[in-house]
Structure formats: structure tokens, C-alpha cells
Amino acid sequence: MQRGKKTVLNASAALLLEIITVICGFILPRLILSAFGSSYNGVTASIVQFLSWVALLRSGIGGVTRAALYSPLANHDKNKLNSIIKATDIFMKKVAIVFVILLLLFASLYPFLVLEDFSWVFTFSLVCIIGSSTFVQNYFGITYKILLQSDQKQYVISVIEICSTIINTIIAAILIKGGCGIHLVKLGSAIVFIFNPIIINLYTRKKYEIDLNVEPDNQAIKQRWDAFAQQIATLVNNNTDLMVLTIFTNVREVSVYSVYYMVINGISKFIITCSSGVDAAFGNMLAKKEDITLKQNFSMYEWLIYTLGVTFFSVTSVMIVPFVQLYTKGVTDVNYSRLIFSNIMCLALLGNCLRLPYQMMVEAAGHFKQTKKGAIIEAVLNIVISVFLVNIFGIVGVAIGTLAATMFRTLQYSYYMSKNIIVQNWFNVLKRLIIYMLGYFSIYFISNMVPLLEEINYFYWIINSLIVFLIALFVTIAISICFYRKDMIVFYTKIHNIFLKKRRRDANN
To answer: What is the pTM of this model?
Structure first.
């Protein structure tokens, strides 16, 4: 299967997974809010997000292993592949021990932060139940997930996760409607997700004929500790907001944050999903030293991410507060209307998406040690600014910290990549960033000047969203035609060729 077709297949499967995840992600918190209240939703959101980011500890070795596997996969070197898999498997067992230690530490200390609302035993046991689910999903079979990602077979993982996500939502909804407590609901989820790694293990071992009776190639993943350090910094950075809010405010403010973050992060994941499999394609180009093809495809991918990011985040910035007001209708224990906070968080997560092309290229090239300091500085910036401002501006203060740290890291990634991997004038990146940010603010102000329907139900909200989306689409298409027409043509040509070849094969059959 060709690289282009694999990329489209991966992106399509990942997009379907993201749509289902977003839908299910809206259903469950709403059920928890209705059945248990904002305090329960806030404490659950804190636990889930912290543990999901702790799971990122395995992403460091994931990036290093993917970079190491591109060459043996391209050259069909089975012995080299097995030795890298063995080294990764050994390292992942060590990371799993670190995860368990962090889980127990968090489970022991976190309850003291919410004693005003929940008993120590209640919170400790809830952390352990949710943590067991995260542990199972991320550490049993993660080595083989990395192999599938490296070989542009992310779609296999997506299909398995689609099934488990739907089943989990159905079971959780039944348990909540049946009057079960939050512990039993989360235990049901943990049981469902046990089957993911089992299926991935069975499929991968048969597909690739994995043989672990070889010497581990630790040299191939020698930057694993550098990547691990980056992930520790990422873990700290991504949990700063919730931890600062939990320490300096209360679980109701955490609930507000989690509801907005659920929506904005859903948009972020959608854009990330559109690039599923692209890193493996770039890694393959690097392994085969296809420099001209790499530069052309990177420029097109950069244009695509900027266009998608500005289009969808500008719409989100306009429509998120009306949505949250509808979503939390009837919940009166805290004010969920936070316009300034939502706007800053939209910009922060937009910045996180705009770094994708540069981060992906850095990781595909395996430059983890060289970019480690940037990850540490990002985490420190977020902590210092958030802690300083939270007592002044509350939830808005932590959003400002996130925005400042994210923009620093985005610029740092783009600068390093422009100087060391795809050599280009860095000011071209700044020019692109300025052009698209002007487009972003133009969409926001134009949309707020257009008279929209009064938001009284979801139907009117959808109509309004479509109007704002058309405005955003018009602006981003105008930007593309004026400044990045070549990238548009390359993108259209690639998509056209993929579907043209498919039609020809169908006609021949």
C-alpha cells in the first residue's frame, strides 16, 4: 500500500475515532453532572486528566522507537526490527514501574486537596480504579502499538479503540442510569479497556512474526532517556492548570475548566487526527533521503495544519460559551459562562496545534536530546506564570500561563527544525504565523459583528455555528489563494491522484 493511501486511511480511521470519542466524551460528563453534580465531575476530571498525562511517560520511548523503526521497516530488516522491539519492551516495563509509583503517590496525596468535598478513602479508591484503566490501556501492548504506528497502520489501533469507546459509553450510561455509584461506573470502564492491548498483541505478533529471543538493541533507542525527560516536562506542563486550580481554588472551578477543556481539546484532537500517519510517512522519506519530496510535502502539511487550526479554533472561540451554557443548563452550583478564559484557552490550544509540523519533523528525525531544554523551559514558564496569576485572575490566570508557555515551545520547535532538519528561513515561519493569526482575529471580529440567531437551543446553536464556519472558511481560503496557492495545488493533486487510482482499480476489477 502506498504512503499516500496509508496516510489517508489512517487519517480517516483516526477521524472517525475522534468523532466517536468527542460524542462519547460529551455524553458521559453530562450524565455525571446530572447524576452527581459539579463536584463529582470536577474531581473525576482532575484524576482522569492527571493520569492521562502520566501515561505520556511512555510517549517518549514511543517517539524514539518510531524514529528507530523507520529504517528497518523500509529495508525489511526483520532482525533489526526484533532487536529494537525487545529493547523497547524492556524499557517500557521500567516505565510501568514508574507509573505505578506515581499512581500510588498521587492516590495518597490528591485526596488531601479535596477533603472539603470527599473523604480520603473515597478519593484514594477512585484514583486507583481510574488509574488501573489508564495503566492497562497504555502499558500492556504499547510496544506493539508503536510498531503499528511506525508501519503506517494506525488504522488498526483506531478500529479497536472505536469499538471499546462505544462499548464503554453504553456500559457507563447503563450503570449511571441504574443508580450505581461513581466507583462502579469507572470500574466498568476499566474492565472494558483491558481487551484493547490483548487484541493488539495478538494481531501484531501474528502479522510481523515477532521474535523476542534476540539481543536488545539499546543503541537504536539511546535517546530514550532524553525523550523520557521531555515527557516528564510535558507531564508537568499539561497538568499545571488543573493542579494549580485544585490547590488555589476549588473543585467547582476545576469542573468549569474541565468542561471548556473538553470542548477545546476535542477540536485540538480533531486537527491532530487529520495528521495521523503523517509522521511515519515523513520518517520513511527521511530514511530514504528523499529530500525534495520531503520539503514539498512538509510545506503542504504546514499549510494544512495552519488552515485547519485557524478555521476550527476561530469558530470555537465564538461559539464555545453559548454551547457550554446549553450543555450545563440546569447546573447552578457554579457559573459556567467564562468568555475571557475560553478565548485565551482557544489561543493556547491553537498554538499547540500549530507546532505539530515542526514537532513531528523533529521527532521523525530523532532529535530528542537537542530539544530537551525547550520542554523543560515550557513547563517552568507555565508553572511560574500560573501560580503568580491564579490569585489575581483566578482561572484566567492559569490560561495565560498555558498560552505563554505554549507559544514559547511552538516558536522553539519551529526555529530548531528550520535550522537543523528542513533548512529554511525561519522568518517564513513567523510570516505564516502572523498572516494566519491576523486571519484568526478577523474571523472573530467579523463573526461578532454579524447578527446571529438567539441561542436558545441546540438547533439555533448549530445554525449559528454554520454561519461562523462559512465566515472562517472564506477568510482561510482567501489567505491560501493569496499567499499559499502552491501548497493548495499540491494538496489537491495528491488527494485527486489517490482517489483516481482507486477508481481505476475498481474499474479494472
So the answer is: 0.72
